[in-house]
Amino acid sequence: MFPAKDKMRAHYWKLMDDRDELLKESAPLREKREALKEKMAPLEKESREIRDAIIKIERPRLPEIDQERAMIQKALNGAVGERKKAPPVKEPA
After folding, report:
1. I want to staple 62 with a disulfide (CB 3.0 to 4.6 A). Which of 12, 58, 88, 92 is the partner?
2. pTM higher than 0.85 for the full model?
């Protein structure tokens, strides 16, 4: 067997030892992160549900509006002027 292969094998196992040490050092933080993920799971589920409700309201009209606005803005070279303020809404007495 060639000495170079023996050196490569020795180096390989040295790298494995280094890797094991790093993982041992980071283990407490990894456990802490996993515990945090478990706490966040219900909130992430709720967030996804809210996101889906928003999408249901906005699609398909919002992307269509944005595309049409972009075409008009491009046609006017960006000179769209200023938005006129809407009149105040009178509340019923």
Report:
1. 58
2. no
Structure tokens at 46: 């709720």
Residue 71 structure tokens: 């075409």
Report H helices in 1-93.
3-58, 61-75
CB 72 within 8 A of CB 80: yes
Measured between alpha carbons, how far is 33 from 21 in angstroms, rounded to an integer?
A: 19
The residue ranges of every structural domain in the chain are 3-75
Tokens standing for 33? 């992160």
Helix (H, G, I), strand (E, B) or coil at 60: coil
Distance CA 5, CA 10 (A): 9
pLDDT tens for 50-61 read 999 999 999 999
pLDDT, mean of residues 71-90 = 86
Q: In sequence order, which residues have a C-beta less than 8 Å from that of residue 80 and are 6 or more positions away?
A: 72, 73
